[in-house]
Amino acid sequence: MSLTNFHLDLKDRKILSELDLNARQPCSQIAKKVGLSTEVVSYRIKRLEEENIITQYQTIINLSKLNVIQFKICLSLQHITSKKYQELIEKIKENKSIKWLVSCKGNWDLLIAVETDSFENVELLKNNILSEFAGYINQKAIAILVEATTYDRDYLLKSPSTLNRSRIIMEKEKTAKIEPLDLEIIKILSKNARKTIIEIALQLKTTARIVNYRIKQLQKNKIILGFKIALNYEKIGILFFKTMIYIDNPNEERIKSLKQYCAMNKNIIHHVNVLGNWDLEPEFEVYSEAEFNCIISEIKDKYSDIIKQIDIITISKEHKFVYF
Q: 3-state DSSP call for residue 2?
């Protein structure tokens, strides 16, 4: 199924691609790149928002710099009605520690990504969340994020938009000292990456000049890595798959090669290394199940010597997604 089936033409796709590269670009800048007037670009973006194709403007944060620990809870549920399930979703969605909450199909029914600042809190947060599902849990698994990278959506256009399409959001590096005002700016931008400098300044009761300087410094120090969009997959006919790869006979060079493959594949939007039962979690956005099956077959054939098993999870709905 193609984007054009949902009344998105090439210009719409170019606009979406530009917003995914940098969601804070002004309409005038996007207009020059896509060959439209500023007014038309503004109109098209507004239409994409109103039709709920663009669901959110996200800020990509370098979690390592902020000393953030992220872990994932995977749940397979039992004895639960759809009404009770929705009630629990709405309740835990309000938990500020939960950054990603999705319903899915496959080995797991629910994936919950949680952030904290210490390993001591991991156990506490995990138990608090699991207690909400008491009596409904069939199976559970916990995985701690070790490294993570997000990638630009090059698949939106036939030709890749950039050769350097990755932005690392978690790796082994030193934490950065951050001022309270910087943290407040990050929190605001995490909710809406296109919020204007003036709007942020008014909210924080400071000047636009200070806010603009602080954001530039956060980017210079690689605390803010960029700004992108979240999409309504159903609206544009995209399927979202998360895979969990179990590595056997680990070889450093072969694992490095697999990671490089992920970096070059235009359909992979996130790639995560975890400490858990499985090892890697590439995430794919594709236009069809057949397209996804071809990618998985290629991965299995190319890396059959180190891949023991691949679990496939279909993401059916994102209830919540922020990087910080």
A: coil
